Amino acid sequence: MPETVACMTGTSPDIAAQWARVRERLKAEVGDVEYRTWLKQIVLGPLEEDEISLFLPTRFLRDWVRGQYGDRLQELWRLENRFVQRVELQVQRVSDAAAASAVAVETPAPVEPESPAATPASLSEARHDLAAPLDTRFTFDSFVVGKPNEFAYACARRVAEKPSSPGFNPLFLYGGVGLGKTHLMHAIGSELTSGGRVSVAYMSAEKFMYRFIAAIRSQSTMEFKEQLRSVDVLMIDDLQFLIGKDNTQEEFFHTFNALVDAGRQIVVSADKSPSDLSGLEDRLRTRLGCGMVADIHATTFELRISILEAKAQASGVSVPSKVLEFLAHKITSNVRELEGALNRLIAHANLFGRPVTLESTQDVLHDILKAHDRRVTIEEIQRKVSEHWNIRLTDMSSARRARAVARPRQVAMYLAKQLTSRSLPEIGRKFGNRDHTTVMHAVSRVTELMERDAAFAEDVELLRRMLEG
Ligand code: ADP
Ligand code: MG
């Protein structure tokens, strides 16, 4: 290893300062309440090669933070320090972690909340930071337009130019993961706020729910409502999260009506069209479909190439077109992964000062490419696991709770989390519309059992190997 890498190993004061900045950004993004409930307890560990370790006091917290904030933590770290490629979240008791690391930035309180909606440390803080800040990288200029997204792009532009025009209110953007919904929403927001006169509130549906629950608990729902109703533009991202959350849906419905009646603009995103979002209240679904509904389709090869070209050019590193074509062929699922792969190539090129070639690409992206060679689906996992324990496939989604079916179901959820890139709520939905907390529980339960029971661990490992092919 060259010296540049060796001197990055271990926890240096630099790393501590970077960590402090990562925390600050994350705090600004998620708000105080979530930060205190989940993230404050993270303790910085060492940086070894390209992997930074972060410690959490309990497995529950570790899984929750990994599921909800893992990707973002990684992105923020990469922005701070281009040597960091991976963030490894580990369970470690506070005292051990502090001893292992020279910089325990804060002394965490080792509490273990029972559910994600557990009472945050200070509820009144929920009122002060209503919306998440906009990501300045997500602009219309940095959005590459092609056939699959040109309609959604045009609608977003139109709303940014002339908010609240009839026919475009609400604007409902939908499409699969990583296809640019959040990017477009931020672009609308930045465009509108750049003039300074329009107030824009952007938040994920999940955050909307947390804010709402926090407001109820701190008896400040009136303020919450007033604040929401005072904005010119309200944007709610990933609305599918509100499925099954009836009270929150109700609140959103009323806010929605109040804003539209007052001539304000609403922008909503989801993974499906309003008519396909089963589990949403009918009247809400109807209202959501009343404005403009725009679909972002899966990327085409041409669009992937254009996106890669634009991003490579912006990075200043020269990437041969053969490499771009190779990536566009291999990574077809979503733009986020495509971008992640390219970023890693660029980081390596910068780090080692070597040109990017097809050969170095295969080497540097070995793990990503391997994962894309074989995509395991949740259905496959359910099938294999049911066969293995001789239960009916339908029991993967049934309500039966007998151990004989519940345990295999938990294993299937665990494997789904490990082997696919599906989020916890998405996995839950595939298992008879279970809540994401159930999936989270299954993951930690199986991890725990595997540690205690070698025969069980062997079973699970066997299944994993079979599925990975
Ligand atoms: P979604 O919200 O639909 O899951 P995002 O908006 O978060 O997806 O996009 C994932 C990543 O891919 C972001 O970094 C975004 O900037 C990038 N991205 C997606 N589509 C495009 C595009 N057409 N042009 C440029 N970047 C894109
Ligand atoms: Mg998004």
TrEMBL record:
Looking at the Swiss-Prot or TrEMBL record, what is one Pfam family this protein matches? DnaA_N
The subcellular localization recorded is: Cytoplasm
Q: Where is this region: Domain I, interacts with DnaA modulators?
A: 1-100
UniProt superkingdom: Bacteria
Any one biological process term the GO annotation gives: DNA replication initiation
Q: Which residues bind ATP?
A: 178, 180-182
Give the signal peptide range.
none
Q: Which Gene3D superfamilies match?
A: 1.10.1750.10, 1.10.8.60, 3.30.300.180, P-loop containing nucleotide triphosphate hydrolases
Keyword entries, A-Z: ATP-binding, Cytoplasm, DNA replication, DNA-binding, Lipid-binding, Nucleotide-binding
- What SMART domains does the record point to? AAA (SM00382), Bac_DnaA_C (SM00760)
Q: Name one GO cellular component term.
A: plasma membrane
Q: Which CDD domains match?
A: AAA, Bac_DnaA_C
The Gene Ontology terms for molecular function here are: ATP binding; DNA replication origin binding; lipid binding
Region (Domain III, AAA+ region) location: 133-349
Region spans: Domain IV, binds dsDNA: 350-469
Known role: Plays an essential role in the initiation and regulation of chromosomal replication. ATP-DnaA binds to the origin of replication (oriC) to initiate formation of the DNA replication initiation complex once per cell cycle. Binds the DnaA box (a 9 base pair repeat at the origin) and separates the double-stranded (ds)DNA. Forms a right-handed helical filament on oriC DNA; dsDNA binds to the exterior of the filament while single-stranded (ss)DNA is stabiized in the filament's interior.
The entry describes its oligomerization and partners as:
Oligomerizes as a right-handed, spiral filament on DNA at oriC.
Q: Tell me the domain comment.
A: Domain I is involved in oligomerization and binding regulators, domain II is flexibile and of varying length in different bacteria, domain III forms the AAA+ region, while domain IV binds dsDNA.
Q: What's this protein's family per the entry? A: Belongs to the DnaA family.
Q: What is this protein's record name?
A: Chromosomal replication initiator protein DnaA
Organism for this UniProt entry: Kozakia baliensis
